[in-house]
């Protein structure tokens, strides 16, 4: 916030004041650059999609994958979704971008299907902005019908905040998607402040344990440290008791995978099995592991 930054800066002397002003200016500039870039990125075909497998430890099979948006911007090098998605949300561009992602994923699934490999459901991340605009059902139906795909091959990842807001309209919207046989996953689970009792009422299929909880498991001694295990174990029990599928995000090490296996979470997504990869590499992985 500009005022508080200047207040801080003033208290640190004149040089700092200038430093903060410059920093704010370049932040504003970068925001503008991103906003302008995003405006043209779809038309200029600068977006592409990576896929990250969800891997089952017991069967050694890929059981799904997540579509992750990438932007090859000519001016903004190595820009990540963490930086551009929030700006795409603020500007509303995320709605068109989200529809594009759904269409691309369906195109890719149809192309894979034609090669005769075993398909797995692909998850797309849906922004709360897009979900609340209410056009998500239409976009999903349009693309799956166009490409003659079974809706159960498309999974929708929504964050806890959206799904657990307690609004009747949200439940209704989810139920409609579910009735059409699209599947629904709650992303980054455990990081929100949701009422657990509410979870029972929701027509969902999967919980994804947030990466932040997995990150904390660093060695064997973590396995019995309740401070570290309490939340992942609670989420695992919750999913089991509610009959939901479960995926652990951000699994990077053998130790973490062993921990999850021991505690009863069988599906992992993370660098340990595979980083997000382009669609050709994903096809090869599917050929080998499904
Ligand atoms: P997310 O949906 O929770 O996706 C998981 C993120 O964790 C991805 O970051 C993925 O590359 C990263 N990741 C996967 N395995 C590991 C690991 O082992 N270690 C570490 N450190 N990271 C791992 P990414 O692709 O940068 O995306 C960040 C976030 O941006 C996503 O979080 C999602 O919220 C959002 N996002 C990505 N693509 C889309 C999209 O098409 N639409 C919307 N609305 N949001 C998207
Ligand atoms: Mg996700
Ligand atoms: Mg996530
Ligand atoms: Mg996330």
Question: What report would you give on this structure?
Answer:
With 290 residues, the chain is an alpha/beta fold. It has 13 helices and eight strands. It has an eight-stranded mixed beta barrel, surrounded by four helices. The longest helix has 28 residues. The protein is globular and about 50 Å long. One magnesium ion binds next to strand 5. It comes from Methylotuvimicrobium alcaliphilum (strain DSM 19304 / NCIMB 14124 / VKM B-2133 / 20Z) (Methylomicrobium alcaliphilum). This is Diguanylate cyclase.
Topology:
Elements: H1 2-11, H2 14-41, E1 47-56, E2 61-71, H3 81-91, H4 94-114, E3 122-125, H5 128-133, H6 136-146, E4 154-159, H7 160-163, H8 168-179, E5 183-189, H9 196-199, E6 206-209, H10 211-215, H11 226-242, E7 245-249, H12 254-263, E8 267-269, H13 279-289
Parallel strand pairs: 2-3, 3-4, 4-5, 5-6, 6-7, 7-8
Antiparallel strand pairs: 1-2, 1-8
Helix pairs in contact: 1-2, 2-3, 4-6
The structure holds ligand C2E and magnesium ion (3 copies).
């Amino acid at each position: 916030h500009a005022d508080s930054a200047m207040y801080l800066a003033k208290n640190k002397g004149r040089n700092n004041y200038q430093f903060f002003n410059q920093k704010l200016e370049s932040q504003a500039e970068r925001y503008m650059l991103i906003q302008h870039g995003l405006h043209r990125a779809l038309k200029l075909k600068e977006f592409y999609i990576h896929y990250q497998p969800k891997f089952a430890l017991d069967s050694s099979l890929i059981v799904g994958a997540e579509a992750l948006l990438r932007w090859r911007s000519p001016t903004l090098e190595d820009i990540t979704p963490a930086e551009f998605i929030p700006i795409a949300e603020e500007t509303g561009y995320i709605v068109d971008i989200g529809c594009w992602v759904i269409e691309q994923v369906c195109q890719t699934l149809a192309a894979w299907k034609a090669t005769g490999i075993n398909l797995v459901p692909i998850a797309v991340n849906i922004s709360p902005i897009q979900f609340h605009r209410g056009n998500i059902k239409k976009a999903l139906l349009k693309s799956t019908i166009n490409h003659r795909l079974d809706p159960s091959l498309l999974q929708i990842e929504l964050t806890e905040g959206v799904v657990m807001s307690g609004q009747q309209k949200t439940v209704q919207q989810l139920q409609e998607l579910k009735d059409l046989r699209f599947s629904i996953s709650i992303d980054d689970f455990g990081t929100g402040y949701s009422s657990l009792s509410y979870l029972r009422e929701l027509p969902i299929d999967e919980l994804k344990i947030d990466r932040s909880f997995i990150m904390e498991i660093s060695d064997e001694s973590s396995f019995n440290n309740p401070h570290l295990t309490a939340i992942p174990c609670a989420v695992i029990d919750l999913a089991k008791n509610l009959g939901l599928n479960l995926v652990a995000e951000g699994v990077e090490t053998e130790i973490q995978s062993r921990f999850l296996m021991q505690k009863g979470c069988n599906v992992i997504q993370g660098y340990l099995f595979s980083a997000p990869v382009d669609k050709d590499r994903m096809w090869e992985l599917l050929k080998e592991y499904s």
